[in-house]
Amino acid sequence: MTASIPTFLLNTGDRLPVIGYGTFGGKNSSEAMYEAAKEALKVGYRFFDTAYSYTTEEALGKAIRESDVSRKELFVNTKLSQTFHEPKYVRPACERSLSLLGLDYLDMYMVHWPLAWKFSGFEFENLRKKDEEGDIKCIDVPLIDTWRGMEQLVKDGLVKNLGISNFTLPMIKELLTQCNIPPAVHQIEIHPNLLQEDMLAFCKENNILCIASTPLGNPGLFGAGKINPLAEPEVLQVAKKYGKTSAQVVLNWGISRGCSVIPKSATPKRIKENFVVFPIDSKDVDLISKIGHRNTIRVCDPFDAFGPSNDVFGEHKEEVAKWLSLRKSVNNLKSNI
Ligand SMILES: NC(=O)c1ccc[n+]([C@@H]2O[C@H](COP(=O)([O-])OP(=O)(O)OC[C@H]3O[C@@H](n4cnc5c(N)ncnc54)[C@H](OP(=O)(O)O)[C@@H]3O)[C@@H](O)[C@H]2O)c1
């Protein structure tokens, strides 16, 4: 017997499980992610989050095909990479993902980052290649042009729901004034060290469901000390009160704030542990939110990951200004040689 869990209602009328399984493998191989996805299916996960750039679509598709879970029970989301933002690449990119997954439609397709880069082919190793300046340069493709391509996928029956990811409030506001199909979800980094209170309030008001990526704060990613919400005293206190583990508390803190959460684990025991839903009293939700009020940390920073041209959240303005000025001096020097 597998466990089943509650769902959130999307603005399209479809329903999204409150817990999904994240497939960003990181250091884990595709084989490990295939085994992990098989385990997740066995435990009862029905919502799977992947992305072309994670290179796990094929492993996930294989696990799905080999399971006895019917297609209509599943909610599969994948993401359009930055190099496919030019409208002519949106459909081929979606078809590529469908083919890797072995599916004939997606439950959701989302714009992975509000960043457009030059097309560099479909080979994974070329997707995120930095130039000699340690940067990936953006090209001028308005988000609405990419979105029109996404809308066409819905009209063509390839995709059921559209989503966005890592957008800022001004970007969403602009998209909402221009789009024909509003996004059903916004996937953003949310955990006790990154509360995203304004974003959550705006999305709720506009009937866009937030999906919390990195919902556990990816403990250990940066080594001891930088971030581990699971070890914070407030989480330990609430875990003791409810007789749950820290991870279960942090995930249900996210769900209690109205988000679907998509933890990743390649460890069978944790895959099971993370698939537990229970209500958390609003006082305890507020207690855990104190962590983010005293220490805000972003785990997945596009400035670090993609270079200075990609400071989506405007959190590195000084470093970007210094970099631009250094770049100008170097270019001046080069032109004088
Ligand atoms: N849209 C975006 O730009 C974006 C960005 C980042 C992530 N995401 C999505 O969000 C998903 C989750 O984010 P994430 O993978 O970065 O981080 P996460 O789910 O917050 O954390 C994953 C890490 O936590 C460990 N872990 C899992 N369950 C645990 C438990 N019960 N106790 C202790 N440690 C536990 C895992 O270790 P083991 O695997 O070793 O068990 C792994 O190292 C991704 O897989 C991806 O689908 C989206």
TrEMBL record:
Alphabetically sorted, this entry's keywords are: Oxidoreductase
Source domain of life is: Eukaryota
InterPro entries in the record? AKR, Aldo/ket_reductase_CS, NAD(P)_OxRdtase_dom_sf, NADP_OxRdtase_dom
Per its UniProt record, what PROSITE patterns does this chain match?
ALDOKETO_REDUCTASE_2
Any idea which positions bind substrate?
H112
Q: Which GO terms describe its molecular function?
A: oxidoreductase activity, acting on the CH-OH group of donors, NAD or NADP as acceptor
Look up keyword Amino-acid biosynthesis and say if it applies: no
Catalytic residue positions: Y54
Residue numbers for the site described as Lowers pKa of active site Tyr?
A: K79
Q: Which residues form the NADP-dependent oxidoreductase domain?
A: 19-291
Annotated transmembrane regions: none
Which CDD domains does the annotation name? AKR_AKR1-5-like
Q: Does the keyword Transferase apply?
A: no
Q: What is this protein called?
A: NADP-dependent oxidoreductase domain-containing protein
